[in-house]
Amino acid sequence: MSEPRKETHEARPQAGPPRIRAGELLRRMQWNEPITIIDTRSPEAWGKSDRKIRGAVRMTVGEIEEQLDRIPNDRPVVTYCT
What we know:
By secondary structure, the protein is of the alpha/beta class. The chain has a domain of 45 residues: Rhodanese-like domain (Oxidized Rhodanese, domain 1). The chain contains two helices and three strands, in the order αβαββ. Strands 2-1-3 form a three-stranded parallel beta sheet, with no helix packed on it. Helix 2 links the parallel strand 1 and strand 2. The radius of gyration is 17 Å and the shape is globular.
């Protein structure tokens, strides 16, 4: 009989920026870590949603480049959408 397979949580190579799970973001927010959250949902999706993160900066993906001056560069930035 073989040993049970152990789960590993090794980092996997990924394309693009690193990802963060919702639970990790919540933990960082609860510990008041300096973090910028950008809500990139469309205005329609944002308006219909009952879930909004307090303090999140609202801008669509298409607006990010033209609004870079609104994004602090001295802390991690998290973007999210639906």
